[in-house]
Amino acid sequence: MRFGTKIKKYFLLTISLVILVWLEVKSQDAQNVNIPVRGATAIGFTTDNQYFVIAKGASIYLYNAGNDTRLKSFDGTLHTKDVLDISFNKNSTLMLTGSADKSTKLWSLPDGKILASYKGHTSPVIAVRFAQGDRFVITLGEDGTVKVFNREDVKELYTKKNFEKPVRALDATADGKYFAVGGGDRIIKIYETTSGTIIKKLEAHTGWVRTLAFSPDGKTLASGGDDKMIYLWDVESATKTKALDQRGWIYDLEFSQDGKYIGAALEKSAIHFYNVNSGNISLKLENIRSAVMKISISPAGQQVAYTYEYGTDIKLANISSLNITPVVHFKDTKDTSAPLILVSNPANIIDNKVVVYKDILDLRGIVTDESGVRSLKINNIETIVRQNGNFVINKELAIGDNYINMEVTDVNGNIALKKFIIVRKNMEGEEYVGVTAVNHLFVVSINNYTHWPKLNNAVKDGNDLVSSLLTKYTFEFSNLTVLKDEQATRTNIYNGLRRLIEKVGSKDNLVIYFSGHGYFDPLLNEGYWIPKEANTNSTGEYVSNTDILKILNAINSQHTFLIADACFSGALFSDNRRGYTDQVEKFRSRWGLASGRLEAVSDGAIGSNSPFAKRLIQFLNETEKDKFAISELIQYVKTLVAEDPDSNQTPVGNPLKALGDEGGEMVLYKKKK
Fold this sequence. Notes:
Rossmann fold; elongated; disordered N terminus
């Protein structure tokens, strides 16, 4: 029996529901960009102003700073609960995330790889910061526990718990020498980072301390409390220098990068920017209609990003009227290498030109750079680059020349360009002449498996099919490839199929035949061919339907006909059907015939053919027609095998899934006597 099966356990992700309320902002100098992310739990601009990061629940998204172009989605399964805070190192190569799952993760930017995990809290981690040039990681638990770790070896330096009530706020100076914590005790404590010594205690608010922010030079600390007050403190003397009455709770505070302004996210549906020297309000963003929960001021000083209660999106408001002096970060001058661009589809781009016969092409490939890819533009349109560097867009093609211009920029400003032409030919294929077309035949048959049960007739089936096609039909030995038993390794099968991409011409035909064990994974809804040397329960050693179809999609033939005599091989096919007409071979086709659906199929008696191969070869040898469309062959095999009392299987024959089938069929011609 040609079969295999596998069952795996899996987990379902919990989907949180949020209330959808449309809100509008009308404010001075506010020209908003709306990013449609609901329920954001943390936001932040990277320190070099290249990226904007959003956490929604446990998922993290990377955007280009200043617009709504999403570049990547980081793995949302690495945290199991909401991400509550985000922090970046000075050169924007690292990111910390603190989560309600009580852990802190260290990520590399912009690729989003996990570098370390810091654990030990017994309550949600509500705030995280880098300290002393990325040397340390500071984490704050909701229960008032502060932990400081060595970043590289993940070892805990110390733990402090100097609060009786829960805490709400943490911030560190830009140089990382000090950090401050505040919460329900209404006291702000400033710590020396390396020792954990409390160097200052500020008798702060009459209500809970909800937010803290150090100025860029570390000399001023801003605090906001549930007593509806904002205070500015001189850190050295531990004295208040300004008191700003808000008549509402303050949810978040942040200094501009030049230290001239302090932005405040307010319960009363507004963002106010105060001049630090005078204490006067310099800019109001009001009428937001619900409380502003979090803010992030861009290092370039042009925008403030904010979330708001019940918001259906994140807004980026223009604050250029403040004339904030931007922070300048110099690029890595040692990096002069441009990114690498690889195009996988369309294949066979020769001399910057490729011919296709499709009206829509999924243009795909990969872009990579050792420092990280910042952006990809295809024909001047920003294109999403996935976490692994892959990209894909659907490109509509006009008849004739279609010019493709690709531009990739890395994080250090190096640019790579790739230009080529996709020539679309008429899909009707008037130039195709079936009787003289070149027919290629690729056959894989395996009896003697190393780890799977041996089969009786797979090799005989393959040999008999080759004999019939070479002796009776317009197939030639020079266009034949046969892999059987020891030759039929995964590498040989895959490479043999791949070589067909270059070998098969646009007006050629291709028949592929596989006879051996098949396997279906119900969890992935994926079928496989089993190579000769493959182990059981090891899908990485099999040839997947996905790989097969990907290669077939790149083969630019007039007709492709795939025949699979293996268990579960029906997973390859769609359910489309059509009839045969006299002109059908002029339209390109991608058809397949499988010995069964998602079921085990018979190998037949020793020395015979399998029930499927028997009917296939019988039709080829006994038909009196000089030519016939493959739908006639398919119908014959399907009917007789299904009616065979010894087979207990139902073949399936249809167009292959999404491979550019245009309604045609291959026609087989007998050789002239």
